[in-house]
């Protein structure tokens, strides 16, 4: 180990050199201030004292800056070169994009920031800079042209983060759907970038009946009544006037090319709610149709919003995966099978019948729901015919048909019920003897049969027990990666709790049981 006299000599020499040179400038902002042996944000006499106190062999010591296993002249050289305040280091920028109009609040994380820090976006000074701590700044981006720019933080040194922030021009990117009834009422999702501060939505110069800004990228508007024809869609926001790339077309009625119309307008005896009837007619699509290829009968489910999740019955509590209840908005109309897919419909397409409840013992087998079909096999039936499964949110919205109770409404109880004893009016449950022919119980307020009981139904979503805690408000489609798929509706062997509107089940997509089937959906 170095003798004490030599240590003192080194110390005196180092201090004399620093006194002569003054503060050291020009250090790289990418360095993590290696001379700051005792972390204070400054390389100073405290660090020098620590180095001298541990001079000599000392593996792992903070003062062994170069990791040689010894505190020596090489480490001292690094410390002297780094003498003075540590230069800033930028480690993260959030968000990484903002409007060309400026005003985006940007959080800058890093090290060695000071209260007099300056921030520039591509050479332009930030509108304002807030010092939060030595590790964080908040800067308001100035206006600029579109494109990526460097972000620079200046304190006692300079830190440059290349291509750290992307200026994007506000714009409307899409409108969905692109047509609706001349009577108005169609719910339209307007998507874009930086739609902040939306103050008006116009369809051909006529204000929307109502609108709501969901986020900086989504606005939902209710179309006004108008004459037949195509009109521009325009938003006024913080960015000024934005014009959609597609026009919206007002129509009297559009029949899907794949369908035969059975009933154009919803039957008031079945769709008893005037609100639901108006929503259906506002789409400009017929209510009840038959798919020409598959012969599956469909009813139209309009766009709308509802509270998805926990609806307990008098004797059936909710499960944890049904919470939290949350607002969901579906922006697109879709067709959903009036009945569960039957064995006859399956055999017509697939040529064989996998069901348990078929044959001479079940003379009405053709009208019973097909079962013992896996999610994977169901895709082989649906996809070639342009059909699909409903999402979990679509299924629950269709089940509820405007109600918020555990069980959907029916004749005499149009607002639904939480009474388990009334379930037999709409569902086959707690039963033996197998499935039953479809459509023998009361339908719900959209005209859908057997949404509770008979066979449980595959839906499209992947299952997550915690999905509701973070699911999107608009058009949720399930977890992105989990393997198992969601099952809804309950089955004929189960009790009332399993047949509730919000009850969720799940299984492997390759699994099949004699109590599980499905219901087809189709886009218009």
Would you write up a description of this structure?
This protein is an alpha+beta fold and 524 residues long. 13% of the residues lie in helices and 30% in strands. A hairpin with a 5-residue loop joins strand 26 and strand 27 (297-301). The protein is elongated and about 95 Å long. The chain folds into 4 domains: 4-85, no CATH class; 89-168, Sandwich (Immunoglobulin-like), CATH 2.60.40.10; 174-251, Immunoglobulin-like, CATH 2.60.40; 288-522, Alpha-Beta Complex (paralog of FGE (formylglycine-generating enzyme)). Mean pLDDT is 91; it is low at 1-31. The N and C termini lie far apart (85 Å).
Short structural description:
This protein has 524 residues and is α+β, with helices and mostly antiparallel strands. The protein has four domains: 4-85, no CATH class; 89-168, Immunoglobulins (Immunoglobulin-like), CATH 2.60.40.10; 174-251, Sandwich (Immunoglobulin-like); 288-522, Alpha-Beta Complex (paralog of FGE (formylglycine-generating enzyme)).
């Amino acid at each position: 180990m170095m003798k004490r006299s030599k240590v003192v000599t080194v110390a005196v020499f180092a201090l004399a050199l620093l006194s002569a040179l003054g503060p050291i400038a020009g250090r790289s902002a990418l360095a993590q201030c290696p001379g700051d042996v005792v972390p204070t944000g400054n390389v100073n006499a405290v660090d020098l004292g620590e180095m001298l106190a541990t001079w000599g062999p000392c593996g792992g010591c903070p003062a062994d800056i170069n990791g040689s296993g010894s505190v020596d002249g090489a480490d001292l050289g690094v410390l002297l070169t780094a003498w003075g305040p540590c230069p800033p280091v930028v480690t993260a920028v959030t968000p990484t994009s903002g409007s060309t109009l400026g005003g985006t609040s940007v959080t800058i994380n890093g090290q060695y920031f000071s209260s007099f820090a300056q921030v520039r976006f591509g050479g332009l000074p930030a509108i304002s800079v807030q010092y939060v701590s030595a590790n964080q700044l908040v800067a308001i981006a100035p206006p600029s042209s579109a494109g990526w720019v460097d972000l620079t933080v200046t304190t006692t040194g300079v830190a440059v983060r290349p291509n750290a922030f992307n200026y994007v021009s506000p714009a409307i990117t899409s409108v969905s759907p692109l047509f609706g009834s001349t009577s108005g009422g169609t719910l339209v999702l307007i998507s874009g970038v930086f739609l902040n501060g939306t103050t008006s939505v116009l369809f051909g110069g006529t204000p929307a009946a109502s609108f709501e800004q969901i986020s900086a990228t989504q606005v939902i508007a209710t179309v006004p009544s108008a004459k037949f024809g195509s009109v521009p869609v325009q938003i006024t926001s913080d960015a000024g006037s934005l014009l959609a790339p597609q026009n919206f077309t007002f129509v009297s009625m559009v029949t899907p090319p794949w369908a035969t119309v059975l009933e154009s307008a919803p039957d008031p005896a079945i769709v008893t709610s005037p609100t639901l009837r108006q929503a259906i007619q506002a789409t400009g699509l017929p209510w009840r149709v038959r798919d020409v290829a598959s012969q599956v009968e469909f009813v139209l489910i309009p766009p709308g919003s509802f509270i998805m999740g926990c609806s307990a019955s008098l004797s059936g509590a909710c499960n944890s995966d049904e919470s939290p209840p949350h607002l969901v908005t579906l922006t697109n109309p879709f067709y959903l099978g009036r009945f569960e897919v039957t064995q006859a419909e399956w055999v017509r397409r697939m040529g064989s019948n996998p069901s348990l409840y078929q044959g001479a013992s079940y003379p009405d087998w053709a009208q019973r729901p097909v079962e013992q079909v896996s999610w994977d096999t169901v895709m082989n039936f649906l996809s070639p015919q342009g059909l699909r499964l409903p999402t979990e949110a679509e299924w629950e919205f269709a089940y509820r048909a405007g109600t918020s109770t555990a069980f959907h409404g029916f004749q005499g109880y149009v607002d639904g019920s939480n009474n388990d004893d009334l379930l037999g009016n709409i569902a086959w449950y707690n039963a033996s003897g197998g499935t039953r022919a479809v459509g023998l119980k009361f339908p719900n307020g959209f005209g859908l049969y057997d949404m509770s009981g008979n066979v449980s139904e595959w839906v499209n979503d992947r299952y997550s027990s915690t999905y509701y805690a973070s699911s999107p408000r608009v058009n949720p489609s399930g977890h992105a990666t989990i393997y198992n798929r969601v099952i809804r509706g309950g089955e004929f062997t189960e009790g009332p709790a399993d047949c509730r509107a919000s009850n969720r089940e799940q299984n492997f997509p390759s699994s099949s049981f004699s109590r599980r089937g499905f219901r087809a959906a189709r886009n218009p």
